[in-house]
Amino acid sequence: MVLLGVVATRAFNAHGADGLIARNVTLFGKQVAAILFSSAWAFCFTYAMLRLIDRITPVRVDRHAEETGLDEALHHEQAYLT
Question: Of 15, 34, 38, whose CA–CA distance to 26 is shortest?
Fold first, then answer.
């Protein structure tokens, strides 16, 4: 997406916009803003959904299950002999 703001040219799309190489900072700025906004949106939405799911069912196992291994804690089996 950033490179689109850099190398875009009206030679390929007459209704489009020129990029940073053609000295148009506006399209480059819009592309960077879109990347920042979509990244922030994805992070916030994922965080909110995980918090909501965690209220219904735990997302993470307890410390003891992590230390003994998830095979033992969740499936009551040993996958690897120690």
Answer: 34
Indicate the pTM of the whole model: 0.68
Distance, in Å, from the CA atom of 35 to the CA atom of 29, rounded to the nearest integer, reads 10
* pLDDT tens digit sequence for 21-39: 999 999 999 999 999 999 9
Give CA–CA dist 72/80, Å, rounded.
Answer: 10
Q: Are 27 and 5 in contact (CB under 8 A)?
A: yes
Tell whether the torsion through CA atoms of 48, 52, 55 and 57 is positive or negative.
negative
Q: Please state, in angstroms and rounded to a whole number, the distance separating the CA atoms of residues 38 and 2.
A: 13
| 76 vs 25: CA distance, rounded Å | 59
